[in-house]
Design goal:
This protein has about 325 residues and is mainly α. It is built from twelve helices and two strands; from the N terminus they run αααααβααααβααα.
């Protein structure tokens, strides 16, 4: 039996690696195409803009990757990000608490939202699509109510804006801290996924949840933990976008979840569960940001940008289905 399983497992690993290589090749191709189409594309400020755009969507995509690997989905990450940004603003601006406390409040808000979603999914057995769709609306409504439907500005705390837009790197070339946060978060996410029990159980749940349960694993507890982790990443994204804009915008956030899911899928994370990587997700996030930026430079209307992104997601899912069929 072991001999029969080994080739199949090896083919999955190989196909996953091929998916990452193809995604990286697509990213390079986009850079080449847009740089030829517009001389402004490779300008330093524009490249930094792509990196900044990727920082928020990339952090959201890191969290979504864990959930999708389990075979679930989280449609609430965008509005949870917004709610986390609003709570950060309330703690810092309205309650005049230290910036560090406001940042922790943003993390805690995201983690709590993820915990609630995970509990509803794992204990009440409500499908992830419905549970997180409900959380999407709850977070959206709470963000509007708590903020009074008004933006919260961090005018008295310039150090908060420097968390995202300042630069810790020495030298004349300025690289915003938000980009460093993205890569730091990606390293942490990669270590969690590859080196911890939570990561191993995420893959196990996505591969065969019933077998995982029968092996003695507390599936309910680990599902809640994984959704809570996704919420924490959403909280981090909320802090980042608030620091980048120097304000918490309560109406912002809806639609971000689609880009985050698209980034994970394009990077090779299977919607069927049991397969995915942090590196692939980061590449996928850069593809989404590069494509959006390039189309904007070429003056393609926003509506068509959305159409192109949706078409790419469909193609990515189809390729994932074909890849899994060949591997099985």
């Amino acid at each position: 039996m072991a001999v029969a399983v080994a080739p199949q497992r090896r083919s999955f690993v190989q196909s996953d690696a091929i998916q990452r290589v193809l995604a990286f090749g697509a990213l390079i191709a986009l850079f080449i195409i847009f740089s030829i189409a517009s001389p402004n594309f490779l300008q330093f400020d524009n490249v930094i803009g792509i990196l900044l755009a990727t920082s928020v969507n990339g952090v959201l995509a890191l969290g979504v990757t864990f959930v999708i690997i389990t075979g679930g989905i989280d449609l609430s990450v965008g509005t949870v990000m917004t709610l986390s940004a609003v709570m950060t603003g309330i703690f810092i601006t309205d309650w005049h608490l230290p910036v560090a406390v406001g940042i922790l409040a943003g993390f805690a808000t995201g983690g709590l939202a993820g915990f609630v979603s995970g509990t509803v999914i794992a204990r009440m057995r409500i499908p992830p699509f419905i549970a997180t769709l409900g959380m999407l609306n709850i977070a959206k409504g709470l963000a509007l109510v708590i903020s009074g439907v008004k933006p919260i500005y961090f005018t008295d705390t310039p150090e908060f804006n420097r968390l995202a837009m300042g630069s810790l790197l020495p030298g004349d070339v300025t690289v915003p801290n938000a980009i460093l946060v993205l890569f730091g978060a990606a390293i942490v996410a990669s270590l969690i996924l590859s080196r911890t029990v939570l990561g191993r159980y995420a893959f196990a749940l996505g591969s065969n949840e019933d077998a995982t349960r029968l092996s003695g694993v507390n599936v309910v507890r680990w599902k809640i933990a994984i959704y809570s982790l996704t919420g924490i990443f959403s909280g981090l994204a909320g802090v980042l976008i608030a620091a980048r804009l120097n304000s918490a915008q309560p109406a912002l956030g809806q639609g971000y979840e689609l880009d985050a899911i698209a980034a994970a899928v394009i990077g090779g994370t299977s919607l069927s569960g049991g397969e995915g990587s942090i590196l692939g997700t980061v590449i996928g996030a850069f593809i989404i940001s590069t494509l959006t930026n390039g189309l904007r430079i070429l003056s393609v209307p926003q509506e068509w940008q959305t159409v192109v992104t949706g078409a790419i997601v469909i193609v990515a899912v189809y390729l994932d289905i074909v890849r899994r069929q060949r591997a099985s």
